[in-house]
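Predict structure. Chain length: 497.
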Amino acid sequence: MKFGQYGKHRVLESIPGLLVWGTFISAILASFFAPVAAIVFIIIFDIYWLLRVIYFVIHLLGGYKTYRATMAVDWYALLQKVISWERVYHVVMLPTFQEDLVILREALRSIAATPYRKDRMIVVVGGEQGDAADFSAHRAVLEREFSGVFAELLFTVHPSGMEGEIPGKGSNLHYMAGEVRGIIDARAIPYDDVVVSAFDIDTVPHAQYFPRLAYLFCTVPNPLRTSYQPVTLFSNNIWNATAPVRIAAFGTTFWLLSELVRPERLWTFSSHSMPWRMLVDVGYWEPDLVSEDSRIFLQGLIHYDGDYRVTPMFLPVSMDTVTGATYMESLKALYKQQRRWAWGVEHFAYMLEKFGQHPLLPMRTKIKYVFNHMEGMFTWAMAPILIFILGYLPFFTVGQSQSALITNSPFTLQWIMRIATLGVFVTGGLSFFFLPPRPKHRGWHTWIVYLAQWILLPVTSILFSAFPAIDAQTRFIFGKYLGFNVTKKHAESRRAG
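Prediction complete.
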């Protein structure tokens, strides 16, 4: 990359962080030098946030209704009524690094439990050279246990130190895809008949996931121009998670569930599925970035000049919450996970650069994705601090005022926040419907604790949502790039605790 191109890229990737910090600094300065203007801004922003909360709750409830309806369908029975459904091959890719054998075994067992034809399933477990010894030992066990279950069970080892890569899921998936291509070509499977599921190693798909995916792949308009997004539940070990971790886990699930109702603004996230044809056309996953799960969607969108989308599945994949040996280690792991997800802000510069290079991509599409991404990243970093901290500052600096606006504004803000709090009650109540069965040794009072935990939402949203997002965006300002931090899965945390 030429210096001029590099300089332009550095400017673009700094914009989100500069905008956030500019807003914070402006809010503080205005609180001291123009407190009335600051109060007006706070009122307008809180009204905007209230409308956003109402909008979110409406779509969340709509998403939950569709989710329950989808869960009630026998998709395998419905699939068998579709002509030529047996042509569909599933490739399931499971990148892993230093994971316990229990985690790997559970991943394969959950895939094997599907009613879909196993002779149409190719499962790939991708290890890393840095963990080659343990991975080899796990491989030997898994090959004995799952031999003959699938059409192919492939184990790959991603070499370390490959040029142009950063260690992580994206580079591993890129390597795995090259190995998978050899199998598909050797079996002479048409590329257009293959749908790929890229899962985190702790992913436990719903029993009907693959029939549902095949059904969509056979019935949606232009199935080679869409990815397929399930509902991500962090429930495998939820009973052993700390309160902040549980709140963050449900928050992520509910955010995604509300987005699934609006497919026009939907991106891929975490474990999801996509056509093999698209992967080949775009050159697989980019091996040098952190947020490969959403970038692969953008690669398809750009390659096909906007003729690419995400189809909601409304079936769950269950994953682990972050864990640690101690309470503090769990909180540190949560912070790092949220920062890694917030690293998706790297897509901002990517979109502006790539969109400019593709004149056939509709301008409306360009504006929509840039705005939605920027607005989401901005409010992620700014909203909790502005609402719960900086929003109160101008009332301490404004002094005595006879203005009706100033006199009544505290009461106005209180009522706005009270109404917005209804969203907390909705999400808190809804969270109970996503919990797995309560362990026998967990008393009934556990339900009270799990309801009361939502009192921590303001603190959690600041410490484990806003701060990690600010951290990520600030790193881009100074060029302090983040490597891929693996979210360690502790097998012990899945046991009832």
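Summary: The radius of gyration is 24 Å.
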